[in-house]
Design a protein that fits this description.
single chain, alpha/beta, 9-stranded mixed β-sheet, 12 strands, 14% strand, globular
Length: 450
């Protein structure tokens, strides 16, 4: 039946039931509690099935087979899709202190990712954040289907003022709901905001049960509970032969931004994608404030064949070259802090300049700009191509003895930074003009110093 404009709800036989169909009601209007199908079970008894299913939330719904990670969850966020990709059926953690943008990053993923269904779990968070999600998602339009985003979104609200037992159960409720939609053949993404509040609820319950506390008062079974939660993600073949996936993105709110506390450390053991938020980046208004040196994704090699087949063969290679430049910049900044940038040779000054182009022009993204809030993979690749072509041409000039000061007199670096705003998402052919512009810049500098 058509649940919303975006979701066709498939009425399924419960996974623990099998038998022969004796009778099916005719097409028409029914409530969720009215019998639709009569089954004869294997022991000969009859059972009537309704639209509703009962399932214990702490037990995973059964599947036929688990597939390896081969397809990315496309989010439209450059630092996620290109630098630290997440697979469909994968697990990711977003740790960060207060005000670093965990909730906003999850909002962006929930808004623009190519998942069929979004389950947003507000566990122990502020009530006004849930209100904001409800209001925003009702007004926004899904770019893939043209329907309101709320048509494919389910909110589970267990805010900080709700009973502790409800907060502890909310994560499992959302997960079971996700598995229910996965069994229909949908790709589901869970936003758990936040697993730290869930762990605190677990700690409160454990204290009331007078269990022996472990590190920082959390129960000794915290790690096994986190493991059981993240293990329920995956790309699966369902019992009915369809394929679906559950992707889990859990926010972690370590007190004081301390990543060495138990919830963050145990979460790192069970997720393969770590998007570490940095307070200094958020204070500098660099969003998403995901730090490229503390974050990692173990899915890069698994997803490389998909990127090569569906985007470009050079996609992963270009991504690795950008990461190498950013890593080089980090080591050079240690020298700059001690003795200043002026003493560096020109080739190292160029690395710092190109790294700035990558940071500001590629990794930084504006959620309020119509073209920059969600960027297709083709544009992300073309942007990498332009940045690396500028680096290649500039490096040739430097190797010929041109000083970096002459290169900086041209405004080419600023023009490449502004690509994200100046090139609309639906006009990738405009990137050829930027390649020509870089060639003209190269020729101008050569003539000037001939």
């Amino acid at each position: 039946m058509q649940e919303t404009r975006a979701i066709v709800h498939k009425v399924m036989v419960p996974p623990d039931t099998e038998g022969y169909v004796l009778d099916v009601v005719s097409d028409g209007m029914y409530t969720i509690d009215e019998p639709l199908v009569t089954l004869q079970l294997l022991d000969g008894t009859e059972k009537k099935l309704t639209m509703t299913q009962k399932w214990p939330i702490r037990i995973p719904r059964p599947t036929a087979k688990r597939f390896p990670a081969v397809k990315p969850l496309i989010t439209g966020q450059r630092i996620l899709d290109t630098m630290f990709p997440l697979a469909k059926g994968g697990t990711a953690a977003i740790p960060g202190g207060f005000g670093t943008g965990k909730t906003m990053t999850q909002h962006q993923v929930a808004k623009w990712s190519d998942a069929d269904v979004i389950i947003y779990i507000g566990c122990g968070e502020r009530g006004n954040e849930m209100t904001q999600v409800l209001e925003e998602f009702s007004q926004l339009i899904d770019p893939r289907s043209g329907n309101p985003l709320m048509d494919r979104t389910t909110l589970i609200a267990n805010t900080s003022n709700m009973p502790v037992a409800a907060r502890e159960a909310s994560l499992y409720s959302g997960l079971t709901l996700a598995e229910y939609y996965r069994d229909m053949g949908y790709h589901v993404a869970i936003m758990a905001d936040s697993t730290s509040r869930w762990a605190e609820a677990l700690r409160e319950l454990s204290g009331r049960l007078e269990e022996m506390p472990a590190e920082e008062g959390f129960p000794a079974y915290l790690a096994s509970r986190l493991s059981a939660f993240y293990e329920r993600a995956g790309m699966m073949q369902n019992l009915n032969g369809t394929e679906g996936s559950v992707t889990i993105i859990g926010a972690v709110s370590p007190q004081g931004g301390d990543f060495s506390e138990p919830v963050t450390q145990n979460t790192k053991r069970f997720v393969r994608c770590f998007w570490g938020l940095d307070k200094s980046l958020s204070y500098a208004r660099h969003f998403p404030a995901i730090h490229w040196l503390t974050s990692y994704s173990e899915y890069v090699n698994d997803l490389a064949p998909w990127y090569m087949d569906h985007v470009d063969k050079k996609f992963v290679d270009n991504r690795n070259r950008l990461m190498a430049i950013l890593t080089q910049e980090s080591s050079l900044m240690e020298i700059v802090k001690l003795i200043g940038a002026d003493v560096l040779p020109d080739d190292q000054k160029l690395v710092l300049e190109i790294a700035k182009v990558i940071r500001v022009g590629f990794l930084q993204q504006n959620a309020f700009h119509k073209d920059d809030t969600c960027v297709p993979l083709e544009k992300q690749f073309k942007m990498m191509e332009v940045i690396l072509y500028l680096y290649k041409r500039s490096r040739t000039l430097i190797s010929m003895g041109m000083p970096m000061s002459i290169l900086k007199e041209e405004d080419i670096f600023d023009k490449v930074i502004s690509i994200k705003y100046d090139v609309p998402n639906d006009k990738p052919q405009m990137f050829k003009e930027y390649m020509k512009m870089i060639d003209e810049f190269y020729n101008r500098v050569m003539e000037r110093n001939a």
